[in-house]
Amino acid sequence: MDDDFDMPPADSMNDDFNFGGDLETPVLKVGEEKEIGQQGLKKKLLKEGEGWNTPEVGDEVQVHYTGTLLDGTKFDSSRDRGTPFGFTLGQGQVIKGWDQGIVTMKKGENALFTIPAELAYGESGSPPTIPPNATLQFDVELLSWTSVKDICKDGGLFKKIVTEGEKWENPKDLDEVLVNYEARLEDGTLVAKSDGVEFTVEDGYFCPALSKAVKTMKKGEKVILSVKPQYGFGEKGKPAHGDEGAVPPNASLEITLELVSWKTVSDVTDDKKVIKKILKEGEGYERPNEGAVVKLKVIGKLQDGTLFLKKGHDDEGELFEFKTDEEQVIDGLDRAVLTMKKGEVALLTIAPEYGFGSSESQQELAVVPSNSTLYYEVELVSFEKEKESWDMNTPEKIEGAGNKKEEGNALFKAGKYAKASKRYEKAVKFIEYDTSFSVEEKKSSKTLKVACNLNNAACKLKLKDYKQAEKLCTKVLELESTNVKALYRRAQAYIQLADLDLAEIDIKKALELDPDNREVKLEYKTLKEKMKEYNKKQAKFYGNMFNKLHKLDSLDNNKAESKDAQPMNVDSKA
Predict the structure, then answer these.
(1) Where is the PPIase FKBP-type domain positioned along the sequence (predicted)?
(2) Catalytic option among 76, 99, 139, 506
(3) Is residue 486 classed as helix, strand or coil in its secondary structure?
(4) Domain range for residue 357?
(5) Are residues 397 and 518 part of one domain?
(6) Is 138 designated active site?
(7) Residue 65 bears catalytic tag
(8) pTM for this structure?
(9) Residues 124 and 97 both lie in one domain
């Protein structure tokens, strides 16, 4: 027996190995055997493993094994040596049958693999212990593995997990992370070390590898990073500075990195003009809805630190209370509170567009100048959600829909079309499902649906959302096929969408129903002008196209005539 036998790979057997695809982890009972893949590899389960996780390509695994020929002859055993065998999965460090088989195992699992020669040592064998074309059997126990990830999928940045983190969340670009790290050159020279460094993920710190790695980590996770130059300091390297040592050009690094914690930072409005940083996580999963009554502790400051609002922080202090989505506070604060949980404490940075805008505003403790960026510290003490439709009985649904419609009308008249649209949508949701309504209730429900969808279509036209306007009018026409307003507004949408034929159909039908309708007549005039303009453009387009084709034909004819007129070349030898 060769004591140094360490499962060398068969020559060229791993060159075309492809993990995934048709290799599925077989579900086995103890004592059961199944084939893995379609190349003759078999697995028999000897002992169940723990949990559900299995190692992946690139992971560093530790196993005990015993290898035998089919006649029972033992040719190697890590158990006999008393030392587990370690290798990296999917890197061609072992025979192909091992790479394919061990990815199906769980921690602590014991299995017997029967490996055909094609997935072992092939025609040549491995003299003197393994003959040519030998089928082998390996009794393998998967002791453990260290997860190794190719973070950027280009071989430039590998992450080996030393300590598993908590939960499942990872930091995002805007989040502020707190890390400990230590960076060394490949020869072990310390380059940099720091405990308790805080930075924004998208801004990065030290070298690009840190920000890329932390986005894959969980709270409390500790890793070792293998960093190629493109994710370190590249071709130029880095000179020594302060406590940090020099990094030579094109140097690889090894960085030990621990993600201690992070503060979640979110872009509330998706334009980076209302940013929320969570200082303290809230309770549960519930958040206020639109129309909820919220109670806050709040401090409002300007960029220079001037305090303009403070509520709920004194012992007897009255909490700051308002109803969401009712324009009782600035838009940025209103929107941010809708993303918070009870007990959550957050810092808000609000740009002027979502604050007091270009107007000066007198607040409780100071004047807020025009175009001021605002800074709030907010704690959501409690909230009472507005009743949802599923919590209402039928009369409440109809009343609620009517109230939302009136709110929408008021907002429309004030020119606040987006807010008005939301009110009409909410009104329709209250009465969307009316199968259990009485005949009278269905009648009221239909009237409200028609009015709200028509009014919402008017909002969408103002907001230039013509596709939605068309859909809303179609909903109305499904309820009332002769509704002139729906035909008129749908025609307006069609005109803007350049569906002129459909617009004409709707306008003609509207005029059949209401021949004296002035607005429809004016829209028909607009449509005719659009059609005339469109026809002119089409005529010009096709005219130009035919002219070009005619010129091309003329050129071809001229070339042909010119070719015919050429004298034949005379052979001087004739």
Answers:
(1) 58-146, 174-263, 291-384
(2) 76
(3) helix
(4) 267-384
(5) yes
(6) yes
(7) yes
(8) 0.64
(9) yes
pLDDT at 259 over 90: yes
**Spatial CA neighbour of 98 closest among 108, 112, 84:** 112
Of the candidates 529, 486, 491, the residue with the CA atom closest to the CA atom of residue 508? 491
Domain contains 543:
no
In the residue annotation, 75 being an active-site residue is answered as: yes
241 with 346, same domain: the answer is no
Residues 82 and 168 in one domain: no
Distance CA 393, CA 400 (A): 10
Of 27, 43, 23, 24, give the one whose Cα is nearest residue 114.
Answer: 43
Do residues 65 and 142 share a domain?
yes
Question: Do residue 346 and residue 453 come from a single domain?
Answer: no
Sorting pLDDT into bands at 50, 70 and 90, what band is 90?
A: confident
71 near 130, Cβ under 8 Å?
A: no
Name, in order, each residue with C-beta under 8 angstroms of 214's C-beta and a sequence gap of 6 or more. Answer: 170, 171, 177, 179, 201, 257, 259, 262
Quick one: 393 and 498 in the same domain? yes
pLDDT at 563: 52
Number of structural domains found in the chain? 4
Of 362, 384, 406, the one marking the end of a domain is 384
Query: Active-site residue among 95, 130, 161, 398?
Result: 95
CATH number at residue 243: 3.10.50.40
pLDDT recorded at residue 566: 47
Task: Looking at the structure, tell me whether residues 42 and 91 fall in a common domain.
Answer: yes
Catalytic residue selected from 113, 121, 206, 376: 121
Condensed to tens digits (0 to 9), the pLDDT of residues 354-406 reads 999 999 999 999 999 999 999 999 999 999 999 888 888 999 999 999 999 99
8 A C-beta contact, residue 458 and residue 452: no
**List 138, 158, 430, 494, catalytic entry:** 138
On whether residue 466 sits in a domain, the answer given is yes
Instruction: Give the per-residue pLDDT at 528.
Output: 84
Express as a percent the part of the chain with pLDDT over 70. Answer: 89
Among candidate residues 36, 59, 65, 151, the one labeled active-site is 65
Amino acid sitting at position 255: I
Residue 76 a catalytic site member: yes
